[in-house]
Amino acid sequence: MTAVQFIPGSSVAEYLSLVRRKNPLIHCVTNEVVQEITANVLLAAGASPAMVVGEGEAEDFVGICDGLSINVGTPFSMRVQIMKAAARKARELGKPWILDPVAAGALVWRDKIIFELMRTGPDVIRGNASEIKFLAGQGSGGKGVDSMDSSDSALQAAVELAEHYSSIVVVTGRTDYITDGTTTYSAEGGNPLITKVVGTGCSLSTLIAAFISSTDSKLEAAAACCAYVKKASEKAASDSKGPGSFHAAYLDALYNLKPEDFNA
């Protein structure tokens, strides 16, 4: 039985303060569907986004950025080569990077890409329950990009995956679990409306990149990021009437939440 501890509000306040003070530059190699919301989420939280995806510059930009986020949502051959080169460069330079294995288990070619990237050594792997269970060899994946499993059912898979790849694994759902295979945090709350807006999960991965790029305490920082997003989604849901207004309210909530809001 995996022991789980809540990430305290004081830690959320601490790591959010670090992000806003350091304004980390995050290199986003992400899919075309979510680029706009990803950039806006980073800006609202206090980080700085860069969508540098050209084959002649993406690898070099790793040397400039503070952290790298790789999302395999819409892969094509040239973009895959860029992802691999950027991941290798991040590992070479000691830059923190996160992998979002979108739709793992759905297609053989996609899965091959994901496993190759995982062997490059991401600091964090962030996925939904079905993706994480598949990557740990405990499931067949979800329904496209949607999870068919609860995060509770993926907790042990997350722990084993973290141990195998020496990475932090974040499995998101009704409860988010954040583990390095030894220590496991949880973040609860949030609102289901966040699942009705495209890109909220992908942008969470990139936001985790900003949090882990601001400190050496990457496990706590990743957990703090999840708790921050949970609270923002609660605030956004209370201020919106549906997915359309939630989109704007979510960005506003990320921007307006202050570190002291978590110390309470």
UniProtKB/TrEMBL annotation:
SUPFAM superfamilies: Ribokinase-like (SSF53613)
Keyword field: ATP-binding, Kinase, Magnesium, Metal-binding, Nucleotide-binding, Thiamine biosynthesis, Transferase
Keyword Oxidoreductase set for record: no
Catalysis: reaction(s): 5-(2-hydroxyethyl)-4-methylthiazole + ATP = 4-methyl-5-(2-phosphooxyethyl)-thiazole + ADP + H(+)
Signal peptide start-end: none
Binding site for substrate: 51, 199
InterPro entries (alphabetical): Hyethyz_kinase (IPR000417), Ribokinase-like (IPR029056)
Binding site for ATP: 126, 172
Biological-process GO terms, alphabetical: thiamine biosynthetic process; thiamine diphosphate biosynthetic process
Enzyme class: transferase
GO cellular component: cytosol
GO-annotated molecular function: ATP binding; hydroxyethylthiazole kinase activity; hydroxymethylpyrimidine kinase activity; magnesium ion binding; phosphomethylpyrimidine kinase activity
EC number, as in UniProt: 2.7.1.50
Needed cofactors: Mg(2+)
NCBIfam families: PRK09355.1, thiM
The protein's role, per its UniProt record: Catalyzes the phosphorylation of the hydroxyl group of 4-methyl-5-beta-hydroxyethylthiazole (THZ).
This protein's name: Hydroxyethylthiazole kinase
Organism: Turicimonas muris
